[in-house]
Amino acid sequence: MSATTAATQTVNVKGTPFAYRELGPAAGVPLVLLHHVTAVLDDWDPALIDALAAERRVILVDLRGVGASGGTTPDTFEAMADDAVAFLDALGLDVVDLLGYSLGGIVAQVVVQRNPDRVRRIVLAATTPAGAQGPAATGALLQDAVQKATEQGKHPKHFLFFEPSSSGQDAANAFLARLETRTQDDRDTPISNETVGAQLTALTKWEQDTSPAALATVEHPALVVNGDNDTMWPTAGTLQLARLLPNAKLAVYPDSGHGGIFQYHEVFAQQTLDFLRG
């Protein structure tokens, strides 16, 4: 089984069906991945997932209202984090490792603060602490990227996730090609405008109404990564996040942005596996 063939399954989470996929060996602490803003299951890089699943049980999930999952997406990260924990309960998972990317990295931060006993180790990619500059402008950045993509015949992720350099755009093309390898009759449901709106509201609240002070109490081992020039959520926020977490390791990838983990998927996968081995 691979990321491109793993079946989409559903589990009842307090009366709401949540869509998920899993692959990899059954033994060991599961690694649960939390998605970025606007993403569904199909937006995870299959090359990255396969590399992680070579060693770990990997579980991808659409949170409430996302993709094929039912319900309405909440507009706070506290509620999203509660949904993530309820998903773990539904699968009978007591303790997991979390990998949160972008918006998913914020959800992961809240999960580990509110439910520290449910998490062993945490990987935070292209994300930012509460109060840091960037998330509130996400809606405007998305609109600008869509306009540029339409004008230039490209995908919005060419502009949102990757550098304009030749190496950055080559990486974008390779990443987008990998996303298309998923079995065509088992694609996830595209994200709705309603869900994106709720996510953007949550991001604005995260920047404007919350404080990162509680991160100082998170004693879990953390791996914090990003590209060196994230133009969606400035890399400075990632550096701040690594400083705030008492037990964090930091990795920054050159000539890359918000999608650095996809541009350097082999490096990131190896760093993650090494980190999770402890």
Automatic annotation (TrEMBL):
Transmembrane residue ranges: none
Question: What InterPro entries does this protein's entry cite?
Answer: AB_hydrolase (IPR050471), AB_hydrolase_1 (IPR000073), AB_hydrolase_fold (IPR029058)
Signal sequence coordinates:
none
Q: Give residue ranges for domain AB hydrolase-1.
A: 30-262
Write down the Gene3D superfamilies for this protein, in alphabetical order.
alpha/beta hydrolase (3.40.50.1820)
Coiled coil stretches, renumbered: none
Q: Which GO terms describe its molecular function?
A: hydrolase activity
Q: Which domain of life is it from?
A: Bacteria
Q: Which UniProt keywords apply?
A: Hydrolase
Q: Which Pfam families match?
A: Abhydrolase_1
Q: What is this protein called?
A: Alpha/beta hydrolase
